[in-house]
Design goal:
The protein is an alpha/beta fold. The protein has 18 helices and 16 strands. 42% of the residues lie in helices and 15% in strands. The structure holds nicotinamide-adenine-dinucleotide.
Length: 474
């Protein structure tokens, strides 16, 4: 029986391994983590992450061929294939701060693998890492006292949160990069044999190590670039009377462009897009390519611009001040069908409104009060002062009492002067907006940062409506 161990039981490690366990009943899968509460949650009825379909998959395999454990060393020692799916956040201090990937967790996992292993293993980069990371990992692993040989593969994950299980069941492609040596090719084959249990051969792409590592950064950069392109266009639409959804529809009909991922919004979020582009910027700079670095940096700058543009629109529309006005925030997660708030645009939008002294009443179906309070007091990287991370000081900028987290959209909007829709949760489409309007201060404003509402219907009710990317009267 092939034994797989995955170090890191997060948004990637947990769902990916659960699907491998489901699709490969003859493989034993152990997902390990140093975070004991997370492992306890994986072993309970309340999984640590919300992902449609995940509960079902975990229930079918847990205790049979899928195990969650904090005994990292034991499971690594026993495994034939070790996936490493630890977090690779942006460095916050030192060389490359604010751009480079922090590989501390990766390095410590690699040193531990070298230390505890007693037999040869295939080590798989599942985390998103800078191109050439495998070279560093090989160096660390080769310094083991027992002369054990390791093969490193790059197998980046392309799942999207909110549709992770669907993406894992039917991946557009599985990418496996390895050394072009006979041992490297043998390792690639071992991993291919796992995926081939449910993914057709033509969807499994094999490349050299560096192409696989770079392809993940490139894919995220292209996806984020597409969002920034349409968001940049949304600003021009508002200024000229064009309508961004009509423009997206028209350009998406061109088969060279295609219709997907052309929705405008208040900005992209999530733990990956910004982090991976910043990492790409850093890699370009380190390789003497400042113009290429600047090109990709613009994708993040437009994203920041979109968020501040939205805040300015809210404040300007509400007679240039939101001081002491109650604003309902509908949605805080970075997208629907996830409880993940990492880098969600809601953080910057809320901070912008709080600095203008608004009183916020926040509702999201999957995000907890603790998450929101933590996110609103975190630091943010400042492009103009790249060495320093600017702390948002709650006492000088805003007061935590300005934020209330409530249990439903009706409570959030009661007595509010305005509503900002920041996540495209389906439930926001079918709210009783007549009832909401009755219970709000007048004039009642609604700012749709996600295109979820029918602006015409809401205007008939009496709302003053702003939809991002649409002219003010459309
Ligand atoms: P996460 O923070 O949810 O999970 C990482 C886990 O690794 C944490 O639970 C942490 O405790 C654990 N960990 C860290 N060091 C460890 C160690 N030495 N031993 C054992 N456990 C350790 O992160 P995530 O969202 O799952 O992302 C993981 C990687 O996958 C990142 O590189 C990310 O860029 C990449 N990725 C993420 C997504 C996504 O949608 N979240 C998609 C594709 C790729």
């Amino acid at each position: 029986m092939v034994k797989i161990c995955c170090i890191g039981a997060g948004y990637v490690g947990g769902p990916t391994m659960a699907v491998i366990a489901l699709k490969c009943p003859s493989v034993e899968v152990a997902v390990v983590d140093i975070w004991d509460k997370r492992i306890a949650a994986w072993n309970s009825d309340q999984l640590p992450i919300y992902e449609p379909g995940l509960d079902d998959v975990v229930k079918q395999c847990r205790g049979k061929n899928l195990f969650f454990s904090t005994d990292v060393k034991k499971h690594v020692k026993e495994a034939d294939i070790v996936f490493v799916s630890v977090n690779t956040p942006t460095k916050t201090t030192g060389l490359g701060a604010g751009k480079a990937a922090d590989l501390t967790y990766w390095e410590s996992a690699a040193r531990m693998i070298a230390d505890v292993s007693e037999s040869s293993k295939v080590v798989v980069e599942k985390s998103t890492v800078p191109v050439k990371t495998a070279e560093a990992i090989e160096k660390i692993l080769s310094h083991n006292s027992k002369g054990i040989k390791f093969q490193i593969l790059s197998n980046p994950e392309f799942l999207a949160e909110g549709t992770a299980i669907q993406d894992l069941f039917n991946p557009d492609r599985v990418l496996i990069g390895g050394r072009e040596t006979p041992e490297g090719q043998e390792a690639i084959q071992a991993l291919k044999d796992v995926y081939a249990q449910w993914v057709s051969e033509d969807r499994i792409i094999t490349t050299n190590l560096w192409s696989a590592e770079l392809s993940k950064l490139a894919a995220n950069a292209f996806l984020a670039q597409r969002i920034s392109s349409v968001n940049a266009m949304s600003a021009l639409c508002e200024a000229t009377g064009a309508n961004v959804s009509q423009v997206s529809h028209a350009i998406g009909k061109d088969t060279r462009i295609g219709p997907k991922f052309l929705n405008t919004s208040v900005g992209f979020g999530g733990s990956c897009f910004q982090k991976d582009i910043l990492n790409l910027v850093y890699i370009c700079e380190c390789n003497g390519l400042p113009e290429v670095a600047e090109y990709w940096r613009q994708v993040v700058k437009i994203n920041d611009y979109q968020k501040s543009r939205f805040v300015n629109r809210v404040v300007a529309s509400m007679f240039n001040t939101v001081s002491t006005k109650k604003i309902a925030i509908l949605g805080f997660a970075f997208k629907k069908d996830t409880g993940d708030t990492r880098e969600t645009p809601a953080i910057d939008v809320c901070k912008g409104l709080l600095v203008d002294k608004a009183e916020l009443s926040i509702y999201d179906p999957q995000v907890t009060q603790d998450q929101i309070q933590r996110d609103l007091t975190l630091r943010k990287f400042d492009w103009d002062h790249p060495i320093h991370l600017q702390p948002v000081n709650p006492t000088s900028c805003f007061n935590v009492d300005q934020v209330k987290v409530v249990r439903d959209a009706y409570e959030a909007t009661k007595g509010a002067h305005g509503i900002c829709i920041l996540t495209e949760w389906d439930e926001f489409k079918s709210l009783d907006y007549n009832k909401i309007y009755e219970n709000m201060q007048k004039p009642a404003f609604i700012f749709d940062g996600r295109y979820v509402i029918d602006a015409d219907k809401l205007r008939e009710i009496g709302f003053i409506v702003f939809s991002i990317g649409k002219p003010l009267d459309a």
